[in-house]
Write a structure and sequence with these properties.
Keywords: Repeat. One of its GO terms (molecular function) is RNA binding. Belongs to the PPR family. PCMP-H subfamily. The chain is mainly α. Among the domains are: about 100 residues, Serine Threonine Protein Phosphatase 5, Tetratricopeptide repeat, CATH 1.25.40; about 80 residues. Helix content is about 70%, strand content about 0%. The chain is built from 24 helices and no strands. The longest helix is centred in the N-terminal third of the chain and has 14 residues.
Length: about 425
């Protein structure tokens, strides 16, 4: 259609360049740039964004540096800074950000999000405090950032500060807050957020509805979660996963499998997270046959099992006493087993006093060298030998811990005082 046009202007050229950039065909986009008679600030911004999207920040920066000062508008600065951020180049992003003659709300929020993804919450907060005039987008970036790194109390405190400053939440704020409440297991706060959603008549989009299902399920009110889930006219994979996970985590593994069967009959296909949740449900319920069938079913959906899926499978077989079979699965894994996989197998060895398999594990990991620094494997091995009355081997493990300067970390729990989670 574009080539058949008798006359082409900047708008049509930009539309085509944008289309090529969105699908990563940057060579075709540059060909059009060469043919374009007059380039606009939009042209450059679209091209810079396209190169950044495919991870080529060098090419993006080359284009950015070609732009004259008259054409280098705020959008061009913003997409270049954002391009560095989405590729994890925060130092380069900060250098360019500090050089910006003028900053819009988006670039402030993008920088805050970037620092949270890097794990530098302190710098994200410092940057937020420097914003001269804040808007809701900035507050949402701060709240979402704290939620995503698990600092949920700080997310709730940021929300309270936001309201004190006169800002009212939208559906994106609510989704982050519901996630924070779910992580905290705080049904009281979750209910307050739900009441606020209804009171403010906030749009019930996917993010909010999924957040409600996930929050109620994680906080123990599975019936309320199921009620909201059943009332949804359309559900995406995240919502199905939240409900299946909620049922499984509260001992309703059979119901979780039944819901998965309903998901298969729906228009929404399961993803890797769905199968991880299902395998975990089978593990805790001891559903070995079902778990093996679910693991095999991943191929039907074109999904490759990750190390987390194998970890669940090892745990499932190990808890059922099929320790030798679990060890064989590890031997055939297409990726290198991590400490979680070995830990699941060693835990099964301890449970069933399988010293023979435990000895194989020790030889396989090179006499504990590959797990140096992880106290759990040492303690489990020591306990296996002690329970089998192999005191000399148990003492050898304890000495190895001392040589590697590894101390057994004490367990800890988190308790929310003053909350009634019974509903």
């Amino acid at each position: 259609m574009f080539e058949e046009m008798p006359e082409k202007n900047a708008v049509t050229f930009n539309a085509m360049i944008s289309g090529y950039s969105m699908v990563g065909e940057m060579g075709s986009a540059l060909d059009l740039l060469d043919r374009m008679p007059g380039r606009t600030p939009v042209t450059w911004a679209v091209l810079i964004e396209g190169f950044a999207r495919i991870g080529d920040t060098v090419a993006a920066r080359r284009l950015f540096d070609q732009i004259t000062d008259q054409v280098r508008t705020v959008p061009a600065w913003t997409v270049m800074v954002h391009g560095y951020i989405i590729n994890g180049e925060m130092d380069a992003a900060r250098t360019l950000f500090d050089q910006m003659p003028f900053r819009n709300a988006f670039v402030w929020s993008s920088m805050i999000t970037g620092y949270f993804k890097k794990g530098d919450a302190a710098e994200a907060q410092r940057l937020f405090d420097q914003i001269p005039v804040r808007n809701l987008v900035n507050w949402n970036a701060l709240i979402a950032g704290y939620t995503q790194i698990g600092c949920c109390e700080k997310a709730l405190e940021a929300f309270r500060r936001m309201r004190r400053d006169g800002f009212e939440p939208d559906e994106f704020t609510m989704a982050s807050l519901l996630s924070a409440c779910g992580q905290l297991g705080s049904l009281q706060h979750g209910r307050e957020i739900h009441e606020l959603i209804n009171g403010r008549r906030i749009k019930m989009n996917y993010f909010v509805l999924n957040g409600l299902v996930d929050m109620y399920a994680k906080c123990g009110d599975v019936e309320r979660a199921r009620s909201i889930f059943n009332g949804m006219t359309k559900r995406n994979a995240s919502c199905w996963n939240s409900m299946i996970s909620g049922l499984a985590s509260h001992g309703q593994s059979r119901e979780a499998l039944e819901l998965f069967a309903a998901m298969e009959e729906s228009e929404e296909e399961p993803n890797a997270i769905t199968f991880l949740v299902l395998l975990s449900a089978c593990t805790h319920a001891g559903f070995v046959k079902e778990g093996l069938e679910i693991f095999a079913k991943m191929d039907e959906y074109g999904l490759a099992a990750g190390v987390e899926h194998y970890g669940c499978l090892i745990d499932l077989l190990g808890r059922a006493g099929r320790v030798a079979e679990a060890y064989d699965v590890i031997q055939k894994m297409p990726m290198t087993p991590n400490e979680v996989v070995w830990g699941a197998l060693l835990g099964a060895c301890k449970l069933h006093l399988e010293t023979e398999v435990a000895d194989k594990v020790i030889r396989h990991v090179g006499r504990l060298n590959s797990v140096a620094g992880c106290d759990a494997q040492y303690v489990i091995l020591s306990n296996i030998y002690a329970a089998s009355e192999k005191w000399q081997e148990a003492e050898k493990i304890r000495r190895a811990m001392q040589e590697h300067r590894i101390q057994k970390l004490p367990g800890c729990s988190s308790v929310a005082a003053g909350e009634d989670k019974r509903g």
